[in-house]
Give the backbone structure.
Amino acid sequence: MTELLEPRAMGQGLVRRDGVAKVRGTATYAFETPAERPAHCALVQATVARGRVTAIDTAAAEALDGVLAVVTVFTAERLASVEDAELAALQTAEVAFRGQVVGLVLAETSETAREAADLVEVTYDEQPHDSELRADRDDLYTPEKVNPGFETDTAEGDVAAAMATAHATVDHTYSTATYHNNPLEPHATTALWDPAGDGFLTLWDSTQGVHPSRATVCQVLGLPQDHVQVVAPHVGGGFGSKGTPHVNVVLAAMAARVLPGRAVKLALTRQQMFSLAGYRTPTIQHVQVAADAEGRLSAIAIDVVEQTSKVKEFAEQTGVPTRMMYASPNRRTTHRLAALDLPVNSWMRAPGECPGMFGPEVALDELAHDLGIDPVELRIRNEPEVDPETGKPWSSRHLVECLREGAERFGWTGRDPRPGVRREGGWLVGTGVASSVYPTMRMADSTALIRFEAGRYAVEIGAADIGTGTWTTLPQIAADALDVPVDDVEVRIGDTRYPIASVAGGSSGLNTWGSAVVEAARAFRGEYGTDPADGDEMETGVDQAAQDEDHAAYAFGAQFVEARVDADTGEIRVPRHLGVFAAGRIVNPRTARSQFVGAMTMGLSMALHENSLLDPRSGHVVNHDLAEYHISVNADVGDLQAHWLDEHDPWVNAMGTKGIGEIGITGAAAAVANAVWHATGVRVRDLPITLDALLPSLP
Amino acid sequence: MDAEISLRVDGQAHRLTVDTRTTLLDAMRERLGVTSPKKGCDHGQCGACTVLLDGERQLPCLALAVAHDGAEITTADGLAPPGELHPVQQAFLDQDAFQCGYCTPGQVCSAVAVLDEVARGWPSHASTDLTADPELDHDEVSERMSGNLCRCAAYVNIVPAVQQAGGRS
């Protein structure tokens, strides 16, 4: 058990420290880094989905006034490591997916760079490609592990036997679409290669983690860590797509090395982000649920089929939440992959939990209806006493309380369970519920330095603020750990010149960096007491040995949605959406609320709008821009509220935090789908829910 | 082909040479070093670059610089003198109407224009009466702000921020 910090600054809704710069637009993002006479880089992408580049004619491009260099797969420097094939930029003439980078142009201006990139003539030996995900493919395979290292399959008891003998069963296939992270700031880098001595590479990069990014770049380019600096004070959103470096960073570094001493700017276009910056695999989820007449589960199973790129395996852990969410004596989870000639899929907000809380949470709604049990009550009846997967006790679990408080706040009580019977004007009205979950994680590697400087405390750590509020919340933790007013703390983040920090991913950022800061503060006070001298400093890392291993640690939540469907057109609106979360201690209610509502809205977006449409003939996402890849806009969001319980968890870390960046997206789409069903009586099991799926069957 | 043009950005006069293909956005970001307007899509689809061009909200990524010789542009950074904030900016801070901040300067410029458009009585798709003075209610604000995408999805905070700045709490 951990002695939790006494909250003084923590718990206060302080205004963002970077807020003034952001509302004025003066916060500097990667591409905007001031540089003397920077060169602009534009990319040449493959126009075939599979094949081999046989020739590249660069003459016309090179002849263009203002072009500084053209680099192709035939002329690029050889990288030190091509182990990660996604990052092996310009190392092979083989084309593995449409949109793969086969060349780059450097020019005096962005206009010239793009024109020159268009003038590069690439000849291909095109080969047939395979880009269609189907559950009935005969070449599905079993990955060794699923992201980031979970068992691929689990089995307990006998699901088939339970299904055969149960009072009620649900047995359906659900699917989620392909989603692209689409942070508003495109992936961008300003890169500078200083050739003096052994050379020094500076990357002002849009990344969720400067140290992980540096480690990757060093490995790929064969550079020692002390010859590379990565800087990212402000990041325009990531949602996972800037969590693991993609090829654009490597290309920017290679481009900089072509023009030593001169800064190079490379920003992906919005269109390029659909092939080069990761995405979430579509999933096909066969879900089986069996229960007795009281709704107690005797079996729950999810068999997932999804895709990976042939370039690099990424197995989304979609089945994982089914392993721990509800009590059941019989349980099965499996993952099978189709390896396709497509861009590399990767992390997107709550990988695993996000798609994995769709199918099962809709199936439970179907079960509740079949049994005539309220869907809130059904979930409460299946509350497990201990973690079903590990048998460990929960560090804290307040799903039932979230369901109850959410039902109260939403006005769920007395809900007419019948679907498709409420009409208000021309609208069919319904309500739905689903649970949310996200594991509480802490990374092993993070170190903080605390220095007493001119009467204030400077805290340095290479952490990231991708909009999450780190600039503001880390000082709150440091202030409480040092027992000083928060205004006496200055935090410096987003630069590899500060001590190592883990990635802003897995909702682990504050859990990890905050732990490092607390350790450093305690060590500082132990060494220097409460009256330090100017310049006294202490650097300490997270204490991995102190990490509790005896409990299962998760954040939980419940989401309630009111859906309205136009009885004539099938148009779907969500006027009310309410979430209640139990996610440990909330460090800053102002920024925390923004994270919860933001993720819930992304879940709404997933439910109704987002859908990357792949044309299997071309291996290409045809709606690859923000006009056609629809995300929720302001007018799509109604009365959307996030609430939380005051949860005290002494096991997770010294702050008592569980991480809040991702849980809000989990379960949201299921709650919308369940509400749409309740409004219309039409059960849509495939996302997104669009009016064409409803129209033929509206009452 | 190059052309020489004049721009006045946030009160400062500039004389610059641009490629005739240069957008007004790139002229600001890549020639003048004015990076308050953000590039999110370069196709007029996200609204991140929204500025006030000759007093109205416009998307400089869809405008060629050479076609705007002599234009007067106000970015979010020019809405208030250094050290001060425009009421819309203050409201965005108060309501935490952003997270990553990348769409924010565009949202702020849009909001300033929305308040002006409402004051001038311009109706929107959400207006029930096209001739009445529009109210700054939720539907009016959310409709008028829907040209500005926010992937962090601060929408539920942006609406009250615009209302606060418009004097309706």
About this structure: The two ends of chain B are 51 Å apart (CA to CA). The domain at 2-78 of chain B is CATH 3.10.20.30 (Ubiquitin-like (UB roll)). The first strand of chain B starts at residue 2 and ends at 9. Chain B has two domains: 2-78, 87-165.
